User: What shape does this take?
Amino acid sequence: MTVKPTVRKVVAFVVHEGKLAVFRQDDEAAGLQVPAGTLRPGEDPEHGALREATEETGLPNLRVIAYLGRYRYDITPFREEIQDRSVFLLTVDGNPPDRWDSAETHDGLLPPTPLHFHWVPLGDPELEQLVVGQGTLLDRIT
Assistant: This one.
């Protein structure tokens, strides 16, 4: 029996005026997502969530307002790994656009991946489409 590696991840729920920032990639098969990513060695999860959200959304003035919890998620068949995810609630100050494009730069190791963002009201059925368990703990946002 092969033991799957465990990878520390963060998930960032960026909320503004009762709406959650979500994105799709050009590859529709990638599905509806929220900012998330791998923690760097020694990186604090709160810092990692803020870094990932800033990198992926491209929005200035993001700030963490709450830690929502931690859970494990097996992402097989996408990759043979267990993700140990820490989830944070963030907000953005100012007036962000209704829709915008950004890119995941992959720390310069791969070509950028275009990301197409929009806001979805919390509680909207569209959020049930979040991929690979990213919607876990979304119900903790009050």
